[in-house]
Specification:
Layout (H helix, E strand, L loop, with lengths): L1 E3 L6 E3 L19 H6 L2 H13 L5 H5 L8 E5 L16 E5 H9 L4 H13 L1
Antiparallel strand pairs: 1-2, 3-4
Length: about 120
Amino acid sequence: MYKACSKCGKTHDYNYKCTHGIKRDYTNYANTQEAKLRHTHKWQVKSEQIKKNSNYLCAVCLDCGIYNYNNLETHHITKIKDDKEQWLDDDNLICLCRLHHKQADKGLLSKEYLINLVKKRSVS
């Protein structure tokens, strides 16, 4: 029996798992300590707390005068792999929309800028 593939648009055997579009150059992230920490109950609670403290708004968008409640994520300013001690530290976590989270991960938003936004959240 065959089925139409939603990934590549071709027809495959029903039991075939299409690998179209899967990036294979990553370093087995699922088995890293960072990935394991992100799947703990502590992290889920802390992430929700950071979003709540930020009034469910992206900090960068808010700094630009935009109220963005969509696609919110909690970002580690200092990466877990660089300093595991700060993985639940409020001063190291910031609420960002997906776009700004990607920009922060790529280094397009400076750590200093993000830290200043965290300080603004703490004052509010």
